Amino acid sequence: MPQRGDRPPPPPPDPVPALSADPSALDDLLRDRSYVGGDGTVPTEEDARLLRALEKKKGCADEAHDNLERWRRHLNSFPEEERKKFPSVQRVALLL
User: Fold this and answer.
1) Domain range list for the chain
2) Which of 16, 21, 75, 88 lies 20 to 30 Å from 27 when distance is taken between CA atoms?
3) Which class for 58: exposed (0-12), middle (13-18), buried (19 or more C-beta within 10 A)?
4) Residue 8 burial (C-beta neighbours within 10 Å; 0-12, 13-18, 19+)
5) Is 74 exposed, middle or buried (0-12, 13-18, 19+ CB in 10 A)?
6) Picking from 6-10, 16-20, 59-63, which range would have the lowest pLDDT averaged per residue?
């Protein structure tokens, strides 16, 4: 039972900076998942944020990262307005 003054645990670190810096790690993650956020079965705001971060970087797209390119093409198939409405990871967890 929480005591008065106890703080909730900190949220997990944001995966977007690390994944956008390491295309090979992202490609590995996407080997068995359709999306980055949540349980990988629905697109989330993490996916949209990561796509934006990768698009700002030049030269991170190449043929060596098949899973990453599949994910990028798939996310780009959603109109920008729809990507802005992707649910948060926390909201997805509540729905599952």
Assistant:
1) 15-95
2) 88
3) exposed
4) exposed
5) middle
6) 59-63
Question: Under CATH, to which class is 15-95 assigned?
Answer: mainly alpha
CA atoms within 13 A on the CB side of 42: 15
Three-class SS state of 76: helix
Q: Say if CB 20 and CB 59 are below 8 A apart.
A: no
Cα angle 15, 16, 20; round to 5 = 120
pLDDT tens across 30-69, in order? 999 999 888 889 999 989 988 988 888 765 556 789 999 9
One-character DSSP codes across 41-71: SS--HHHHHHHHHHHHSSS---TT-HHHHHH
